[in-house]
Amino acid sequence: DFSENAHFPRIVRAGVGVRSRATGTALGATYSAVRGDGDLHAGWPRYAAVGVEQRLPILRFLTVRGGYATSLEGAAAVTGGIGIGLGSLNLTAAAILSTGHGDENAGPEPDRQRFANQLEAGSGFAVYVGLDILRF
């Protein structure tokens, strides 16, 4: 039963972003929606998100960022983080607080505990640490 419809859906995504070299500020917004009957995807089936990133003028290697996302069905997430640029490497850390709508049976197939439905219903706090390689 788990592998029924276990294929990738179509994902429709639109976004816009702008960065100011003068101020070191970047702004972005995204809308995404899953289409089709496959459910092998990570994240909410539908969401809108906005974010801002600011490179600090005194410590040009340090960047702070924050954002907000909503599933458009009651779940939301707020995030904040920092990035430390080390040449072609960027060390990042972020904290995320998510609040789900609490209904694990929400979604197109309420009789199944699909990953996407559980993700949308979940709430909690998470910390992420990553290393980006910007160029070789």
Question: How would you sum up this structure, described in words?
Answer:
- With 136 residues, this protein is mainly β.
- The chain is 5% helix and 54% strand.
- The protein contains one helix and seven strands; from the N terminus they run ββββββαβ.
- The chain has one helix at 115-121, and strands at 10-20, 25-35, 46-55, 62-70, 76-86, 89-99, 124-133.
- The chain has a seven-stranded antiparallel β-sheet with strand order 1-2-3-4-5-6-7, with no helix packed on it.
- Strand 1 (10-20) and strand 2 form a beta hairpin.
- The termini are far apart.
- The model has no long low-confidence stretch (mean pLDDT 81).
Task: Describe how the helices and strands are arranged.
Layout: E1 10-20, E2 25-35, E3 46-55, E4 62-70, E5 76-86, E6 89-99, H1 115-121, E7 124-133
Low-confidence stretches: none
Largest pleated sheet: 7 strands, antiparallel
Instruction: Give the overall shape, derived from the CA principal axes.
Output: elongated
- The sequence of SSEs as H and E is EEEEEEHE
Give the number of DSSP strands.
Answer: 7
End-to-end C-alpha gap: 44 Å
**What is the spatial order of strands in the main beta sheet?**
1-2-3-4-5-6-7
Q: What labels describe this entry?
A:
single chain; 1 helix; mainly beta; 136 residues
Short description:
The relative contact order is 0.16. This protein is mainly beta. It has one helix at residues 115-121; strands at 10-20, 25-35, 46-55, 62-70, 76-86, 89-99, 124-133.
